[in-house]
Amino acid sequence: MNRILSIVQVGHPVLREPTAELTPEALQTDEIQQFIDDLIATMRAANGAGLAANQVYQSLRICAIEVRDNPRYPYRPNIPLTILINPVLTPVGTEMFENYEGCLSVPNLRGKVQRYCEIDVSALDRHGNPINDRVRGMTAATYQHEVDHLLGMLFLDRVEDSTSLVTWDNFERYHRAQVAENVQQLVARYGS
Ligand code: NI
Hints:
Number of helices: 4
Distance between the termini: 33 Å
Bound molecules: nickel (II) ion
CATH class: Alpha Beta
Number of domains: 1
CATH superfamily: Peptide deformylase
Number of strands: 7
Shape: globular
Helix content: 25-40%
CATH topology: Peptide Deformylase
Radius of gyration: 16 Å
Strand content: 25-35%
Structural class: alpha+beta
């Protein structure tokens, strides 16, 4: 049975501590494998696009990412379920785009942040196999958001223009149409 875990809210110190890397041995344990299943179940129950282990009180370098016709982000392209263990991201080039982000640990707030358009990902999958991948566009932004969590950062730290901070209702009312158009252009360019 998978458990739905409670999600840490902004202000709790566990969100601000860099998480601990996993050894290949630790990764193989039933305890960690069950935790990964619980992390996925919790992300899906909360309609998150991703969830980091320290968002459910476990200071471990593990995150889950998935977008599957997400009602929280209806204009976003899908991303297959991905588990990253000990991920390291390297930007490809210097080009960035503006992304309107929200977070399950930051209730009812969204804001504009800059994200790299393309990144190289080096990580392990949940079985300890190496992942070496290049991701682009919205998928790249999601990876950057989740790996920030694992390093003790929140999207709030990257909001340069505090006037972009909005509630979810006001996002719908004043920003969604423009953001949906921007995302469409991004997807047309990068396919993701
Ligand atoms: Ni988040």
